[in-house]
Amino acid sequence: MECKNLSGALIVACDTLTTVDLGALEAIADLYVEENPSLESLSLPNLYAVTDMQKWGYKALRSLSVPTVVAISDSLSIDGSPALETFDFPVLESVGKMTYKNSATPPAGAFPRLLGMGSFYTYSGDSEYADFIDLL
Fold first, then answer.
1. CA-to-CA distance for 20 and 22, rounded, in angstroms?
2. Residue from 81, 30, 31 nearest 57 by CA
């Protein structure tokens, strides 16, 4: 059975996972990927609708790819990913609130189409400070 749409929350939490295949997921209310210190790559190639996306506690994560999400109405939160090198949100145009802390600084151009943000964007912890404009 393949689940493409979830009206509630999905929580992925396991300290031994190195990969997670959520390739079939197209829409979800809340996605929480937490306390996965061995996870190296997370790709959601078909996800087009999400309300709240939070990821924290994965020190090995090097790549995060969500190439089809245009809007995140509530929040996008990334915390505890100091090894993050690839941050792929190429069509994200709006986000209600963005929090980014204790993680590697996103590369320039990480959000090339971001046009609107409701609340705030923050760097803190181990991240180097970078001008938000560089991310566009």
1. 6
2. 81
Q: How far apart are CA 79 and CA 66, in angstroms?
A: 17
Residue 121: both structure tokens together: 């964007």
* Global pTM value: 0.79
Q: How far, in Å, are 2, 38, 45 from residue 63 at the CA level? A: 24, 12, 13
Contact 37, 17 (CB under 8 A): no
**Can you read off the two tokens belonging to residue 38?**
């061995």
Q: Widest CA span of the chain, in angstroms?
A: 44
pLDDT, tens digit, 9 for 90 and up, residues 10-53: 888 877 888 777 888 899 889 888 877 888 888 889 998 888 88
For 59-94, what is each residue's pLDDT tens digit? Answer: 888 888 899 999 998 988 888 888 888 888 899 998
Given the DSSP bridges, would you call strands 41-43 and 5-12 parallel, antiparallel or unpaired? unpaired
Contact 43, 63 (CB under 8 A): yes
Looking up tokens 């929580």 gives: 11
What is the residue type of 128? Answer: E
